[in-house]
Write the structure tokens for this entry.
Amino acid sequence: MEQASLQTGKPGDKSTGKPSLTLHRTFPVPPQKVWRAWTEPEALKRWFGPAGEQQPVSVADIDLRVGGRFRLVFGGPDGNEHEAAGLYKDVQPHRKLVFTWCWPRSTPDRISQITILLRAEGGGTDMEFRHEQFFDQAARDGHERGWTVTFGKLEAFLLRA
């Protein structure tokens, strides 16, 4: 089976001057399967979050519509519970998902934006993941490490689901 590929780039968003991150992954499954992994609560619980079985997602609330909200609660490597939340800005099934992203318990005033683009490619899916409007370079770099690990978990989930 084809391995997922990872490319990173776009260290800064020229329109806002704030740091940003773009990751590309290729998965050997159709876009519909990748879409479900991002948008169905029970699927999201099975792959999302930092590495390690001891850090499961305990809450995945998703109101998948423009203006709808999501909330994820999961364990972290520090043993503490973390919460991520946001608002859906664009929902185009199997193609595009745009939402805000923040950490309400630690930095609720730091709101960034995520865009996920899915394209069918050679029997699989090319996923372009853009995380923009970071507070600073340190936040961007920390998220790059976190998303890279998380996408490894997404790949494993997609291959076994």
